[in-house]
Design a protein that fits this description.
This protein is an alpha/beta fold. The longest helix has 22 residues. It is globular and about 45 Å long. The termini are far apart. About 7% of the residues have low confidence.
């Protein structure tokens, strides 16, 4: 029994190591695309679904955007338009659904409209990334625990090496069984999940850490 348990443990470690080598590549500005998810007006102060630290996360995303533009690296903007019944934000043809001015896309930057949390679902994101030869993604955006996480996990399944920029993402307080879970706790928990098992789904770094190659 001890031998069997030891063998299973070794096999598990080897499997994790394999996934790390395949998926969690060492992304940097020169070998990656910047993916900006749902940085839209309804998440900012005055919007219909205001997030905690949305402006701060938007500013960090803007910082990365300027660097990617200066380097001539690919930038993909994801824009969510709500089509589900009962939706209260990101409604079609409303100011709240527009991409925030901090990261306004340029004419030559790819903009992908999605209707689900996973940015790959029923969009041409995967085909576009393949067409430009990108294998590593640097992911920013909102909300951390919904669209950012679902997109990152899907990207892992498609074989991309992912880096999520922690201070360029944001969420809001959540409620579970009548108790409020502060946004800061939600943020830490979901990012920790992505970074678990040796950064299996994604490396998680601050803007400063990523820019400085740490």
């Amino acid at each position: 029994m001890k031998f069997l348990l030891k063998s299973c443990t070794v096999a598990f470690v080897l499997l994790i190591s394999f996934f790390q080598n395949v998926h969690a590549q060492n992304a940097n500005i020169d070998n990656s695309a910047l993916l900006i998810i749902d940085v839209q007006n309804d998440y900012f102060p005055g919007g219909k679904m205001t997030l905690v630290n949305a402006t701060e996360a938007g500013v960090k995303t803007q910082e990365l955007l300027k660097i990617y533009r200066a380097k001539g690296r690919p930038v993909i903007h994801i824009k969510h338009i709500a089509t589900n019944a009962g939706a209260t934000f990101f409604l079609p043809n409303t100011p709240g659904a527009e991409i925030n001015e901090l990261v306004t896309p340029k004419a030559d930057e790819k903009v992908i409209v999605k209707h689900y949390p996973n940015s790959f679902r029923e969009t041409d994101l995967l085909q576009y990334l393949k067409s430009i030869g990108v294998k590593n993604l640097v992911i920013t955006g909102m909300m951390t625990d919904v669209c950012v996480v679902s997109t990152t996990r899907a990207a892992f399944d498609f074989g991309f090496g992912n880096t999520v920029i922690s201070d360029a993402t944001a969420t809001r307080d959540r409620n579970l069984n009548g108790k409020t879970i502060p946004a800061a706790n939600v943020q830490k928990s979901y990012l920790a999940g992505l970074n678990a098992l040796g950064s299996l789904y994604a490396k998680v770094k601050t803007t400063s850490q990523f820019v400085n190659g740490q």
